[in-house]
Amino acid sequence: MKKISLIILLFLISNQFLNAQCWQLISAGQYHTVAIKSDGTLWSWGGNAIGQLGNGTTNNESSPIQVGTDTDWLKVTAGDYHSLAIKRNGTLWSWGGNYYGQLGNGTYSNGTVPIQIGDSTNWSIIIGGDFHSFAINTSGKLWAWGRNNYGQLGNGNTTNSNIPIQVGTDTNWQSIGAGYAHSTALKLNGTLWTWGANYFGQLGNGTTTSLNLPMQIGIDNDWQSIDVNNEHSLAIKANGTLWSWGLNTPSFLVNNGEDYLYIPTQIGSDTEWKTIKSGDFFAVALKKNNTIWSWGSGSYGQLGSGAYSHIYPPTQINTFTNWQTIACGDSSTFAINMDGNLWSSGSNISGHLGDGTTINKTVFTSISCMSLGIEEVAIEPFTIYPNPANNYIYISNKIEISKMVVTDISGKVVYKTSTNFSKINIECFQSGVYILQIFSGNGKRNFKFVKT
């Protein structure tokens, strides 16, 4: 069994365990998730068959693991099977699947660790699609690479590229969204542009003709934010209204009985929308009062509603009013609140919810900031093993223990003892993440472990 030593000193207030006030950014692919903590460290979890976690292996991880040791990561995004990130010095990095050149490093070889793309230091915005990628630099120029079979790179042809190529000559690009084979972007003047595949009307231009160059949609100049997934797009205008177009089967975005939306169509009449994210056949959004809402397909629990069912119209998930960041994978949802705590729900077949299990969740489950995802944790003068575990957690101690307490991720006490300190029977514990508190003459130490 591999042993990894890590010294952790935790200061707790009252009797509460450490609340993970550290998550800053989150992005989800089809079966993997990447995130940045407030200290600038990079973390990933979930499916890893082609290195999309960036930890140098191809092993799946059901709990967050740190990617390298750098503390200067600024932005991160997950494509379906690849990942991209920007460091604080403006450099661009990528890893994971690269069959179509979506890593942009001049090869078609998969990468299991972050590799820098070129030598530019002025990258500011990134997005990963299914098999293609985009980046905007500080000059407002838009660059694309990867698969281009429908013209989704927007460079006037349908040839794949394994290096970044500039999209036109404009220098006023503001944001970009990448789906399966189509792309949507906003300019600084508030205009909306699309290109790529259009067989479901996902370009929003009223036709089903694919395009290999950006085309403006309508004449409106009040578009504020966009998000794209597979064959549909969503956007918010400056007046707080929410819009969608593309594949709508079975009326999962706009409940108008139409399978396809060929032009931007308003969702409801609410004018309080602030942020929108889209998965495969579902959407999640934040309102200006920081509440979180979801609708569409909930077949994997991704709506966070407590059920595996379709929901329409947009429905508030819970009563909390402190949400600040959301992300969607194909069938999973993630949210970070204002305290930096991370929550997830939905499909979890590859452990991409990050809760230490591979069990789907229909309600938000908290992901601890202390996520190590290793077989054994050694923190002198104590060692706990194995981790994750199914039947027993064993404790090796070099100093006298006075008490042990186990809490679940919400802080609820599920076990405590003042006599037997050699092992803990966890057979009756539900699958998930737990905190073991060990009390001794040196104070209290806290260990995270996973019950499989």
Key descriptive features of the protein:
single chain; 452 residues; mainly beta; five-stranded mixed beta sheet; four-stranded antiparallel beta sheet; 0% helix; 47% strand; disordered N terminus
What features would you describe in this structure?
The protein is mostly beta strands. It is 0% helix and 47% strand. The chain has strands at 4-5, 23-28, 32-37, 42-46, 61-66, 73-78, 82-87, 92-96, 111-116, 123-128, 132-137, 142-146, 161-166, 173-178, 182-187, 192-196, 211-216, 223-229, 232-237, 242-247, 260-266, 273-278, 282-287, 292-296, 311-316, 323-328, 332-337, 342-346, 361-367, 377-379, 382-385, 392-397, 401-408, 413-417, 423-425, 432-440, 443-451. A 5-stranded mixed β-sheet has the order 1-30-31-32-35, with no helix packed on it. A 4-stranded antiparallel β-sheet has the order 2-3-4-5, with no helix packed on it. Strands 6-7-8-9 form a 4-stranded antiparallel β-sheet, with no helix packed on it. A hairpin with a 2-residue loop joins strand 30 and strand 31 (382-385).
